[in-house]
Structures are given as structure tokens and as C-alpha cells.
Amino acid sequence: MKAVFNRSELAAAVTTVQRAVSTKSSNPALEGILLKAHGSAATLCGYDLDIGITTEIVASVVEEGDIVLSARLFSDIVKLLPDETVTIETDDKLLAYVNSGVTDYQIVGISSYEYPELPSFDTLQTFEIDAGILKSMIRDTFYAISDNPAKPSLMGSLFDVDDGYLNIVSIDGFRMSVRREKIDCDKKFEFILPKKTLGELLKINCEDDSSVKVVVGKKHAVFKIEGYSVVSRLIEGKYVSYKDTIPKGSATTLTVETRRMISAVERMSLLTSDKMQQPVHFVVADDGIKVFCTTAVGKASDYIELDFEGEDIEIGFNNRYMLDAVKNVDADQLIFEFNGPNRPLKILPVSGDSFLILVVPMRI
Length: 364
Hints:
By secondary structure, the chain is of the alpha+beta class. It is built from 6 helices and 26 strands.
């Protein structure tokens, strides 16, 4: 193989696909990047058997071929090369020669025959969505994904496509976050995408208005976005029937300023820690909310003046869970709906139905 690359384009591609490379594997090839030169382009691939990222960049191919190169070493070399032109050449002894200006490297490669193929599958469903919207939906629900291996189906987000809408749902047993956006798809289906894949999709560098094509199979899905393809295994199993967990109606309803609520809870959080986990109390009465916290190190209180409808209530929440909920929404105001001190708080937008959040209270 012999091919000439633009260093900046090569470095960007290597940096992205490297994120899917295994950091430690019994198969050394999985710790590398597969580089294939063909026609007038080169394909780069990183794959750890759970998630794979591939991309194609322009290259001046003198001789077609392929090789697997150590991801860490290859990435470090490309980032520090002095010239914008990079030539990579390999021989039959699996040695790779990297040249850029006056700088030369000779590194040992691995045969591409030792690199596992990315999974191929029959397409069951497809849909498209703007990259900016998809990233916003993932970002707003990412915090509520469970890390508990005892409930593997919750260690990812549910993609629920239903009647022209995409709902992305995350639940960890203490809070639930749902984001909803309209898409051009009249099918009804769902799949569970692992947390790692969701994180990698957030890191893909692309324009917000670029289109993401999602291809779904029985056990895998592919996200195609601006020259990159992210293929991921899906989490098998049945997801929680999340719609059944949403409280009906409201005993107490109020509208709060998001920034004001964040500030109040952050002030209470100064007295709490993982070792001194005490609830932040919310007392809704008269003409506002009294927010207070009492721990072994002291007491703190704050007050938010507002109007509300319904019953007075006192309820307590884990400060971190409450902050996660109100910080991960793009809204200046929020509607809080309470159904008693032992039922989840429901957080909604002032208008529309683009998100819904549940936060389970602590006993007080």
C-alpha cells in the first residue's frame, strides 16, 4: 500500500475512529486502526466488538492495500507531523513507513486478516433526523442512564419511534428523562442503544443541520452522519414500560424560573456530600417555595416567591438528582407537578411536550 494524505484530514479521522478502539484486548488488532487505501480514498475503522466507527477520506492512492496500525501510536504520530502532506507506505513484512516533510517513521503493523469484520445485518427500519436535534435529545437524557449491571436494559436509552415522533427515554430508578421530537417516520418500533454509543454520537463533529440516517436491525444499528458511520450492538431485553410510570394529574402545580431553582438547590448543596446525604426540603405554601437543608455541618434555607395551584406540600429530594433534572433542559421556565410527598415530581415545559422528567423523592 502507498497513499498520500492531507495531514489535518487524516488527524481528524484518526482521532474520531480511535474512540471506538479497544484499550485492552486479547486480540492486538482490536487495539489498532484498520487503514484501507482503495481507488481515490482511504477508509479508517476502529472497532471494539461493541461499537465501531468508520470514515472515508480523500487520498492519492499509488498502490492499494490495507494494514492495522496501533491506534495510540498512529494518532500521536499524525498529530505531531510537521508538514500538511503525509505519505504512508507498507511492505510485505507489515512495516509501515510514514513520511511528512523531513520526518520519517517506521512502525510495525498487523495484518488486516486479523481484524474482525464489522457486523452486517438486515435492515428492519430506517429514519432520519437533524444532527443537532439528535444530539440535544441524547444530551438531555444522558444523565439518567443507569450504571447498574443488575438491570442491563436500563444501561442505555430507549429509542421509541411512534406515530411520527421519536422519544428518547432514560431511567435509572431514581429519575426518568424523556425527550420527544417529530420525525418523518410513520412506523412503530423501538430499540435500546448502549450508553457508550450515545456518548460517542455526542462527540461526532458535525453541523447541527446535517442529516443523520439511522438504520436499525435486529441486534445492531448504524448512525450515518457527515461521512462517519457509527455501528453499535443493541441492548437486548425489554425496556421498562415508561408511559405507565408517569403520574396522572397533579395535586400541586407551579411554574418556576429554571435559573432561580438551580441557584437555590446549589446553595443547599454546599452542606451535603456523599457521606452526609440529607434531602433538600421543598415546602410549597402561602406565596412560594421554602427550600432548606439540615445536615451535621449546619443549616441553610432559601425562598422562591411564586404562585401555585392546589395543595400545600412538603417534599424532599436528593440535591444531585434535582440539579441533574433542572440543568439538563433548555428552558427558562419549568412546570413542577406534585402528587404528594411520596410520589415522583413531574417536570414539564411551559408549552408543548418536548420533554418530561420524573424525580423520585427522598423520605423526610
